[in-house]
Amino acid sequence: MKQYDLIVIGTGSGLDVAVAAASSGLKVAIFEKEKMGGTCLNRGCIPSKMLIHSADVAEIIKKSSMFGIKAKITKIDFPSIIKRVSDFVDEDSKGIERAYSENTNPALFKGTVRFIGMKTLQLKNETFKADKILIATGARPTIPEIEGLDKVDYITSTEALRLTKQPRELTILGGGYIAAELAHFYGSLGTKINIVQRSSWLLTKEDEEIAKKYTESVSKKFNLFLNYDIVKVSEKNKKFFTVIKDQKTNKAKTLKSDQLLIVLGVTPNSDILDLGKTNVNVDDKGFMITNEYMETNASGIFALGDAVGKYMFKHNANWEAEYILNNILNPNNKKKVDYTAMPHAIFTSPQIAGVGYTEQELKEKNIPYSIGKHKYIYTGMGKAIEDTEGFVKILVDKNTKKILGCHILGTDASALIHEVLIAMKSGSGKIDDIINTVHIHPALSEVVQRAAFNIN
């Protein structure tokens, strides 16, 4: 049996903890069953955003005549778009593996590992034990029970980032942020998009006003089938046939496409670890249950990121990793994770970003609030770029003027939200932090300031 001070399972954000712990003098082992770098590098935020930039460029060209420039796209070299991204991601992942394969601390072990006892793991014919263990195994696409799905060659988000042939028509089952981003990528490059969603609008976890405006916007370029249930799927002669049923009329229709993409949530990878052997508790969806210090119920075993499922973003996993490192190295001075102002962004067109409460959440909790909104087009830069759909929505406490949430739809939303984040996290937390800051005119950030001015 090999004994370590710390074992880390997963090389996404867990790798940061492993390296720092080893540098601090702990004897550390890392386990990885797939490519080094975790979900974000290999099949998540890095490749998807690189691909989406190609879609953004295509959209700029399509809109160029609005600004007096006559331009058109003469060819989409889809294989080259995919190759550029895949080559970068694969080389980066291989580079990480080469670097750590030569290390003795942390020591890298490749393959699927399972618990066989309390803090005891097995990989092939070897057993490993550690005083502390960090589980950072992430999650994978959920495969739902749909009639016929097990008989067709569908794709998930993983394969959608690696297709070498662009489909002429793509049917997407699901209306969350991954579906929205992939629809933007393929749709902007010329693929006909069908999106099937059980709800009345897309992105139902967003602020309702933002989500409905986004749904209205993309309905002009994609075929949306809202309030539809998925009945069954089939494949014939390399064509996919998806039967869906209108929830209101019970009428069925069949969608024909070249490719079928399933994006109906994620499933944590905890089920492959045999966690019962080490008594780690999970919830009804399989996510590991942790306390404020990211500790599971099993003493000395921590978990982070998608394996926990609190905020399923890479920046959150990195944030949790910092606290876990402290709590492993300084058990007598543990720190609770501070999730204040945990933001997110959706790299669609239009872009979306958000932080804090949505308006519907404030209503559900009976928290008194005021709203400040402003449209992009009514600012100097908003008019310069002709963003007619974008707007900023800020929610504040009606009495204290503390910022409760901010939601942005429009150009560079993922960047604009940071002004609000700093105010919420490092400033007084009140709307005055934004109001009393001089904003460059006519920078796009004026739309945030004017939304703050409009608090009623």
Question: How would you describe this structure to a colleague?
Answer:
The chain is built from 13 helices and 21 strands. It is α/β, with parallel strands linked by helices and 456 residues long. Helix 3 packs antiparallel against helix 4. The longest helix is centred in the N-terminal third of the chain and has 24 residues, at 78-101. The radius of gyration is 24 Å and the shape is globular.
Please report which band the strand proportion falls in: under 5%, 5-15%, 15-25%, 25-35%, 35-45% or over 45%. Answer: 25-35%
Which bin fits the share of residues in helices? 25-40%
- Please provide the count of β strands: 21
Average of pLDDT: 97
Compute the number of helices: 13
What overall geometry do the principal axes of the alpha carbons give? globular
Determine the oligomeric state from the structure: single chain
Please identify the structural class as seen in this structure.
alpha/beta
Q: What would you report as the Rg, rounded to the nearest angstrom?
A: 24 Å
Compute the separation of the termini in Å.
66 Å
Q: Main beta sheet: strand number and arrangement?
A: 7 strands, mixed
Low-confidence stretches: none
